[in-house]
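pasting input
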Amino acid sequence: TQLLEQSPQFLSIQEGENLTVYCNSSSVFSSLQWYRQEPGEGPVLLVTVVTGGEVKKLKRLTFQFGDARKDSSLHITAAQPGDTGLYLCAGAVSNQGGKLIFGQGTELSVKP
Amino acid sequence: NAGVTQTPKFQVLKTGQSMTLQCAQDMNHEYMSWYRQDPGMGLRLIHYSVGAGITDQGEVPNGYNVSRSTTEDFPLRLLSAAPSQTSVYFCASSYSSRNEKLFFGSGTQLSVL
């Protein structure tokens, strides 16, 4: 069974702080997606990374795909209360026809 | 611009009851799927479909049935509900395959007593 370990599971910080969320696996991924989910809603795609070592920026969010395509990170600079939500990573497993596996999620709470 | 529409939003069942969760998309997507979300376990794939008339099992298919008679609709049937099926269920679609950008519905919160 492929696992995509996401850490930390919970994160509570003050507005203005920086944070990093990690996704790690022993599997190689052809691509990795990051989603954000608000209470009572479905996940919404933030970004897809495809190339090993790739870095993508979305305003204050920076996404990185590991060189070996087995891990990824999401860094938020100067977090704001509007960043509060559940962040999910999802990797497409290379040797299984792109089967998508999800991490357990990181519950982020940013207090004003 | 509806996207993916799921009904109902909330449902309470008694053990042994059956029901169907509805999912419809208006984006002409070929790929549709059902996930369940449980605390600390992320999203787990139940069943998926790559086009009308084609369905396949995902990671946790037991106790669930699906069919895909049209491109737009992909209902999920619980044949005999069990407390272990208490969860939040999401329908998701993408243009052509399972590893492309997924568009999710807003979910159905199901409790089985």
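fyi Residues 52 and 69 of chain B are 5 Å apart (CA to CA).
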